[in-house]
Amino acid sequence: MEDPRGEGAEGGGDAIVALALTRQFRRQLAVDHVSFRVARGRFFGFLGPNGAGKSTTIRMLTGLLRPSSGDAVIEGARLSGDLIDLKRKIGVLLEELPLYERLTGEEHLLFAARMHGLAAPEARRRTQELLEFLSLADERGKLVVDYSQGMRKKLALACALVHGPSVLFLDEPLNGIDPVSGRVVMDLLRRLTARGVTLFFTSHVLDVVERLCDEVAVIDRGRIVAQGTLAEIRAQRELAGDASLEDVFLKLVSADVTREDLSWIG
Amino acid sequence: MALVGLRFRLEARATLGSRGRALGLVFALPFLALFSALASLGAFALVRVVSRTEPGLLLPALSAIFTFLGLSFALAPLLAGVSATESHDLSRLVAYPVPLATLVASSLVANLVQPSVLALVPPLVALAFALGGPRWPLLVPALGLGLLLTVASAQTVGIALHALSRRRRLHDRVLFAGIGAGLLLSLVPVLMLSRGGASARRALVALVERDIFALSPFGWSARAAVHAGRGDFAPFLGWSAAVLVTTAAALGLSAAIAGRLYRGELDSGEAPARAARARIRLPGAIGALVEKDLRVAWRDPRLKAVTLSGVIGPLLLLFVLGQGSAGGVGPVQLVLVAGMAGVGVIGSNALALERDGLGLLLGFPINRLALVTGKSIAVVVLRAPALLALSVAALLFAGPVTAIAIATVVLVTQVIACAADSYLQILFPVPVPAAGRDPNAPISGSRGLGAAAISLLAMAVTLVAAAPFAFLAWLPEPLGQRGLFVATLPLALAGACAVYFMAASGAARLLLRREPELIARLRGEE
Predict the structure, then answer these.
(1) Of the partner residues A97, A141, A159, the one whose CB lies closest to the CB of residue B273
(2) Which of A144, B134, B143, B238 is packed most tightly, with the most Cβ within 10 A?
(3) CB B225 within 8 A of CB B127
């Protein structure tokens, strides 16, 4: 799977190829030689406990954080090469939701569309459709600063989608979204993969990941500890055939779920 | 005491965590000690001199001084924008089973032992000595009550501002008003010392002589102390009791506002939405970027205040220069001010002002030269008030042709300054707080002092680089050939634009190379 030289990484049907990506923050090694491949059109789940390195990996893959070492190829565009070309192909929803708080939701989406080079009429059309689809149409005139967390999440998702990217990086896209909107978003993501869009998805909601993702990778303390379909990982780890993703995940990250009683709680 | 200790720990951490704040404190402490010593000497000398020469003026003068000090402290949360800092924010403490009165009292105690408040104690003791002689121990508590009232008032204002901040729009307006009021107050000394300030000074003296400040509760402790010094114990007790009652009222008001605030009674529902369909009128990605920047600046109280205050800077400079020269404002002064207004673009910090949006902006696949140019255009448009103010001043003082030439000199300098500033934005971004939040809040990774030093250097370089174009633009004036302006003004502007694009291309390449580092620096990860 790993190709340290990155040779031939652009070829084949892979949308994302990570080649020994490493990131060190001062003395802390956040991501340690992470390598994986994601085939085009796959729904790829990237799982890990808090602080495992998921968001750092996404930020590196999207050109927003320079790796300390290693490289990646996204739809043929190298991270170490032309970043503008790479950014043309991807849509990104970061967990911290970088948004302009003093634009209205509609202005924000329109701005994102125009910055992706869409002509004004097309930008307007897509903006209206996305606002309607994500149930933001009634709130389109409100400033983002007055949006709830769920509305911000939906707006950021709309910004990531507006230019029709071929690879979508979604960091916790369902956090803070109500169940109705969550269902709408999940249906949308399924439709996108059916149309050949590659999805790189992180979430702590493991049953959602189990239902949506074709393949998962689990990262723990900056290292990939497993990758494949759920069935493949079960087989690798000699787990029962009916073990859920949650069981597999807890096993992989060595989470000790039995704790001492807090006697004073009663 | 635990609450007071917690507050100190939070403040110590915030100070030590920010190099700028820690350095500020290192500079401020000796300054405060010096201020305290000088104020003590000044207070002592002032009281002795006035007691000897104008004994009738002592009471009204001290009332006026105490009122000024009290108002300065009470309005400090508004002027300094601290309405959102931890000093007056009890929201994280109300979850604990501690009575609200205890929270308010602990906040008062913590505020009383701030260095800026402690620095006032020696002058108050000196004042007690000067007023009371051997009776000074009696006067110190009276004057201390005044200090307590002052700090309690500041706390009431701070908590009230927190209440207002529950409504985002109101909070924005308060922040905008505070910055504006601070700017106007900073102009007062200049205006008072100017030629036209004589009538203002006379009006102030008249107010003091009529003892109008006797109505101000901030002056009552001084009145109590003066009476105690003279041995008039009945008025001393009366004024002291009045201060005590007012302080209790201020604290009660604090607790009442806090009580309503944290029970959500002061929340005022949702902000209204804009009804009209959004449009981006300017063409292309550059147009979209410029329009976005202008809208964001207009809706961010701090940026709006800075933008509008751009009118004041050049006019104030002209005013000062006009005061210093016998012939008033002439063409030379106008050109000087035009150059200074132009270099004012340096330090725009435009990329850092994207705040959280920087990751989004740099995620767009637009040509980086277009991005740098769009940012520069927005910066120049946001400086339009300064250009307009100076052009109007030039029109009034030197006529329409000179006004156009002056406007061109400003533009030429701004264009060159934008080129230099493009590099500064990328290499030395200074993190800024979120829109509408406390402008003085510590930000991780702050490089304020270094950026200021580099900005000064960039200003010097800009002035040198812009000089030939400014000279070309201005040349027909000393030659007495005003008809030549038709050729020199466009030529100067075109030359400056050519220099801009050469420099901006380099900045765009630099940005493309350093984007991840820029984001990491503003996130405090470097």
Answers:
(1) A141
(2) B143
(3) yes
Q: Report the sign of the C-alpha dihedral through residues B29, B30, B33, B34, in that order.
A: negative
Contact A111 B271 (CB under 8 A): no
3-state secondary structure of B48: helix
* Residue A61 near residue A18 (C-beta atoms within 8 A): yes
Report which secondary-structure segment, H or E, holds B189. helix B168-193
- The model's pLDDT over B292-338, given as tens digits with 9 standing for 90+, comes to 999 999 888 888 888 887 777 777 777 776 666 666 677 888 888 88
| 3-state helix/strand/coil string of B127-186 | HHHHHHHHHHHHHHHHHHHHHHHHHHHHHHHHHHHHHHCCCHHHHHHHHHHHHHHHHHHH
Amino acid residing at B129: F
Residues of B in contact with A84 (CB under 8 A): 365-368, 512
Rounded distance, CA B353 to CA B355, Å?
Answer: 5
Chain B residues 282-321 within an 8 A CB cutoff of chain A: 283-285, 287-289, 291-292, 295-296, 299-300
Is residue B214 exposed (0-12), middle (13-18) or buried (19+ Cβ within 10 Å)?
middle
Q: What one-letter code names the amino acid at B391?
A: S
Of A50-59, A250-259, B124-133, B331-340, the range with the highest mean pLDDT is: A50-59
Chain B positions in Cβ-Cβ contact with residue A143 (cut-off 8 Å): 271, 299
pLDDT tens across B416-463, in order? 999 999 999 999 888 876 655 554 454 444 455 677 788 899 999 999
CA distance B304 to chain A (A): 12
Which of A87, A117, A142 is closest, CB to CB, to B285?
Answer: A117
Q: Where are the alpha helices (DSSP H) in B17-120?
A: 19-53, 58-79, 100-112, 115-118
Decide: helix, strand or coil at residue A198: strand
For tokens 């108050």, what's the residue?
A: B124
CB proximity under 8 Å: B 454-483 to A:
none
Assign B7 to helix, strand or coil.
helix
The CA-atom distances, in angstroms, between B376 and each of B147, B181, B345, B363 are: 48, 29, 9, 19
Q: How far away is chain B from the Cα of A64, in angstroms, using its nearest Cα? A: 5
Sequence-distant (6+) residues with CB within 8 A of B2 are: none
What is the least distance, in Å, from the CA of B213 to any CA of chain A? 43
Which of the four pLDDT bands, split at 50, 70 and 90, describes residue B524? confident
Contacts of B289 (CB under 8 A, 6+ apart): A115, B366, B370, B371, B374, B375, B378
Task: Quote the ipTM score.
Answer: 0.86
